[in-house]
Design a protein that fits this description.
The structure holds 2 protein chains of 2 kinds. By secondary structure, chain A is mainly beta. Chain A folds into 2 domains: 2-54, Beta Barrel (OB fold (Dihydrolipoamide Acetyltransferase, E2P)); 68-179, OB fold (Dihydrolipoamide Acetyltransferase, E2P), CATH 2.40.50.140. Helix content of chain A is 0%, strand content 43%. Chain A contains no helices and 16 strands. In chain A, the strands form 4 sheets. Chain A has a 5-stranded mixed barrel with strand order 8-9-10-12-11. Chain A has a 4-stranded mixed β-sheet with strand order 1-6-7-3, with no helix packed on it. Chain A has a 3-stranded antiparallel β-sheet with strand order 2-5-4, with no helix packed on it. In chain A, strand 6 and strand 7 (50-54) form a beta hairpin. The two termini of chain A are 41 Å apart. By secondary structure, chain B is an alpha+beta fold. Chain B has one domain (22-54, 62-230): GHMP Kinase, N-terminal domain (Ribosomal Protein S5, domain 2, 2-Layer Sandwich). In chain B, the strands form 2 sheets. Chain B has a 5-stranded mixed β-sheet. Chain B is globular. Chain B starts with 21 loop residues before the first strand and ends with a helix. Classes of the chains: A mainly beta, B alpha+beta. Chain A binds chain B through residues 1-2, 5-9, 22-23, 25, 27, 32, 34-38, 54-64, 67, 84-85, 88-91, 93-98, 133-134, 136-139, and chain B through 33, 51-55, 57, 59, 105, 107-108, 110-112, 140-149, 184-185, 222, 225-230, 232-234, 236, 239-240, 245-247. Chain B: Its main location: cytoplasm. Chain B: Belongs to the RNase PH family. Chain B: Keywords: Cytoplasm, Exosome.
Chain lengths: 187, 247
Amino acid sequence: MSDQVVCPGDRLVSAAEYSAGHGTHVRDGYVCASLVGVKQVTKTGGQKPLVEVIRRGSQPLVPKPGAAVTAKVTKVNPRLASAEILCIGTKPVDQPFNGIIRVQDVRATEVDKVEMYSSFRPGDIVRAEVLSLGDSRSYYLSTAKNELGVVYAKSVAGQPMVAISWQEMQCPQTKATEKRKVAKVTA
Amino acid sequence: MEFVSPEGLRLDGRRPKELRKLRIKLGSLDGTDGSAFVQLGNTKVLAAVFGPRGAPTGARSSAISCVIAVSAISVQGDRRSKERLGRQATEFSRALTNAMEQLVPADILKNACIDVHVQVLQADGGLFAACANAALLALANAGVPLRDICAACHTGLLESTALVDLSAQESMQQAPQAAILYECRTQSIAIMQTDNKMSTTALEELLELATEGCIALVTAMRQALISSTVQQLSTSAPHASAAQRRD
């Protein structure tokens, strides 16, 4: 077992024959470890085998492009909605990361007709995807997929609302409808 | 004063090219993301890593910050000498912050910040080398991706003999001294700090010795990291399933 444990900077294998996975980086034509952990080679059908360094215990949790996140909307203006990233995948973060949903990333179609106030309100819980690492302050998030959007929102009366279409949610108490970009949550 | 006896021994009984005893303890602090205790002879430092976590609102010049604090109990002497050590610590924190920014991949640091705190518990020469080593071990312990493991080492030229890993008594002398942070893989010097006047030949001699010292320290640091991982593997359940570790 101990011979498989590697340290940051250790050359693992040639980058020409293997592809670099989690916990590794490529330098000078070699796949090198960037974590302390156990080296693991997984064979993938047809392609180059994948080399990873697997770490036990806690791992740093940082949003990566393409990751599904759960965020809480904090501010909304006509161009963008600010949100705090609370969960990455299924794991909660210790301290929220800042995210931004820009108006062009709210939905996939009819992008120019999106109205920010009819899509999100402060306090909404949103499922989103990390688009890119964004600027130095916040991550850019996107809800431009059916399964992404508002999953939990409270009405003016303070009741959690029920989704009635992909654009509307209804308050169970007052029966008033409010506009949101609703996520299609699959059971 | 005689720093190397005719028998070739230093004041504390070491040979000129002998490092002091190195003790490393990883993950000893709860409530941090990673920590390391490093003891080099009588120099004791404790490093803790917090993060990566969401960057606080408001612009920050750097996403990784390293703060070296010299505690009041760590040094003998009057207030002034403690203040001087504190100023030197601030200077070295800056250099160490710079070096760490190069070491941690940019995609981790894009919108997240990492705080590294180093507390000096006891100062007895080679202080900043110990701080740098502890900080790097704590980062590795926290699982922050690193390009390479580096080590830092302090050397001095006393009575025209190059000595590695100076004690407090030796480093108090007005003699050429050099401390480096060395990257083993690229074989490059990340930080170099020199004190007092020296000739280029003296510098070359010191750098060569410091490099040797760093390589020896890296070996010990790697050993500590590997053995702590092996220990972790043997105490906890067998491998986590692929689904658990992916996200």
